Amino acid sequence: MSWLKSGFELSFRIRPVGLALAVLYAVACWGARHFSVDQFFLPAGIRVAALLLCPPRLWPYLILGEYAYFAQLRYPMIEEYGMSWVILGSACLMPAVALIIHLHRKAMGSISESWLLSVAASAALIASALKLGLSHALWPVPPSMPFYTNAALFVLGDYIAILTVAPLALLWIRRHGGYDWSAWRLRPTIVALCALCALSILIATAGARDDSARAILQLLMTLPVIALTCLHGWRGAAVGVPLMNMILSVTMPSTGLPGSFDQTTFFTQQIIAITGTTLLALGSRITHQYHQYTPAQVQEPQATMLSRSAHLASEMDLRERALGLRRVADEIEAALDETLKLLRTHGQEGPAIDLLRTFSSRSRKFRELTSMVYPTELEHAGLYVALRAGGLSEAWEDSHRVVRPVLQGDPCQLGIGLQLAAYRVLAESMSLLLKEERGQIQLRARCGRWGRHKGILITVAMLDRSSTLAPATVGLAIDRLSARTQAYSGSVDCRGNRIRIVMRDAPREMLDDSVKPLAVTPVDMPAKY
After folding, report:
1. Residue 252: C-alpha distances to residues 11, 211, 245, 457 (Å)
2. Residue 128 has pLDDT above 70, yes or no
3. Residue 355 has pLDDT above 90, yes or no
4. Which alpha helices (DSSP H) does 233-262 contain, by range?
5. 350 Cβ partners below 8 Å, 6+ apart?
6. In this structure, are residues 359 and 343 in contact, taking their beta carbons and an 8 Å threshold?
7. I want to staple 343 with a disulfide (CB 3.0 to 4.6 A). Which of 140, 233, 348, 421 is the partner?
8. Do 394 and 368 meet the contact criterion of CB atoms below 8 Å apart?
């Protein structure tokens, strides 16, 4: 409690930038008031926009600027309305709206921009309630206009003004959001903006003579704004709604005084307020859904390329191992030749022939297994030769369950990566059916071109057309084959007695342009395959 004796010290820093901000805010509100009426009160929008743009440490300067603005405006009104109303009515609005913005700070960090509607509605209601409540409580003579009529006028005027200025402030805040503004130079956007300008000219000319025509033209302005919202999400609404509200205010018949009122425009403004709210909410939702979909759309080609690179890296590793095994086999054969020569030199012809016969069968088996590690024949003669001449063909023949494969087309027109992936998929699918199913199996493969894409269609089927693959086999096929097929823009389809696999060698420029690969289904292929 020593501070009771010694006292305490308060210190604060006055920033020149803050003072300049206070002056700028006061001038902006003073200038906006000259273009405002009660049913479109721009200072309310500037108040919310300033609080959104400035960090909380600068809010005291905004309060100071609002006090300065009200001081020059209301000082002459002291005798008519009383000192209490001038002081309290000037001191409450900015802190109340600042509290609303502060309560929405957490929501402002979200991806969606729908919180702006909550800020606009809350600020309009609270500010209008304070203005009307203090005027009815502190004025010597209460306002002549009924309370509810005045409240509707003030709330609508503040709300529309906030929807006019605050979205532009939000655009500035989100200017580094990675948005491509070049889309606004496209023809549909230019047409919508030109239509909005044309309607404003018609309202200013034809609407000045006919109130009904003016109301119809004002309602027609929502169509270009809807188009901008559908084209650009919340940014389209953030540009279109303020433009629409500004055109309404400029073309509204007015006496130039804040209390000026136009009944026809007031009814239109109610519809426009509902439309603007709906468009901002719709635009926010469109942008939110776009952000959820776009990362997957953009990242899918990159993931496809990375998957292909991973598979190729794995294949190159297997290639090195296969070459190492072949070098070992060559060295063993060279040592065997020396051994055979030595045996024959010493007259051991019988043991030499037995050794040669035994080693030849083992060597052939070793090379077949080596070819299954990596099919080197594929690099020189293509996929089909690797299937016929490698260890896979021997393994299938030894099972006595695989009929002669039907291989069509030229696989050499496909990339090495796709041929290797097709080789692995063929081996895995045949192995799966040999282990999990009973009966004869037939393999069909067809290479060709479909549109811009080269690809291969593989069908591994039970020879008995009345048979059906077991659910466990279907699940294993999808689990084991999907990774490689999806890496090459393909799909796996299990129907009836067969497994159908489509793999495509998509052009590189499509992947570089981040175009989502189209899912190729077996329906795209000839029915006989």
Report:
1. 50, 10, 10, 67
2. yes
3. no
4. 234-251
5. none
6. no
7. 348
8. yes
Q: What is the pTM of this model?
A: 0.59
Distance CA 47, CA 333 (A): 90
Name the residue type at position 20. Answer: A
Residue 265 φ then ψ, to 5°: -65, -30
Q: Identify any residues that bridge with 442 across adjacent strands, giving them in sequence order.
A: 461
β-partners of residue 446 are 408, 457
Structure tokens at 419: 């041929």
* 7 torsion bin: left (phi>0), alpha (psi -120 to 50), beta (else): left
Measured distance CA(170)–CA(167) in Å, rounded: 5
Where is 228: in which H helix or E strand?
A: helix 222-232
Q: What letter represents residue 89's amino acid?
A: G
Q: How far apart are CA 518 and CA 525, in angstroms?
A: 14
d(CA 323, CA 331): 12
Q: How many CB atoms lie within 10 A of CB 31?
A: 13
User: Does residue 298 surpass a pLDDT of 60?
Assistant: no
Instruction: With a cut of 50, say whether residue 55 has pLDDT above it.
Output: yes
Q: How far apart are CA 407 and CA 329, in angstroms?
A: 31
How many angstroms from the chain centroid is the CA of residue 210? 46
First to last CA, the chain: 93
Rounded Cα distance between 183 and 165, Å, is: 23
At 95, the pLDDT band (50, 70, 90 cuts) reads: very high
Q: Which residues pair with 457 in a beta bridge?
A: 446, 502
Give 96: exposed, middle or buried? Use CB within 10 Å, 0-12, 13-18, 19+.
middle
Chain CA centroid to CA 209, Å: 48
Instruction: Render the burial of 136-156: b for 16+ CB within 10 Å, e for the rest.
Output: eebeeeeeeeeeeebbebbbb
- Position 7 scores a pLDDT of 62
Cα–Cα nearest to 360, from 384, 336, 391, 331: 336
- Cβ–Cβ < 8 Å for 197, 185: no
Count the Cβ atoms, other than its own, within 10 Å of residue 73: 16
Average pLDDT, the chain: 80
> Counting beta carbons within 10 angstroms of the beta carbon of residue 438, is it exposed (0 to 12), middle (13 to 18) or buried (19 or more)?
exposed
In contact, 459 and 500? CB cutoff 8 Å: yes
DSSP assignment string, 436-456: H--S-EEEEEEEEEETTEEEE
Q: Can you tell me the mean pLDDT for 343-372?
A: 71
**Tokens 């070819």 correspond to what residue?**
371
Looking at residue 509, its pLDDT comes to: 42
Q: Tell me how far apart the alpha carbons of residues 114 and 288 are, in angstroms, rounded to a whole number.
A: 10
* Largest pairwise CA distance in the chain: 137
Concatenated DSSP letters of 262-331 = -HHHHHHHHHHHHHHHHHHHHHHHHHHHHHHHHHHHHHHHHHHHHHHHHHHHHHHHHHHHHHHHHHHHHH
Look at residues 457, 463, 462 and name the one whose alpha carbon lies nearest to residue 488: 457
Q: Write out the two tokens for 407.
A: 């291989």
Q: Is 13 exposed, middle or buried (0-12, 13-18, 19+ CB in 10 A)?
A: exposed
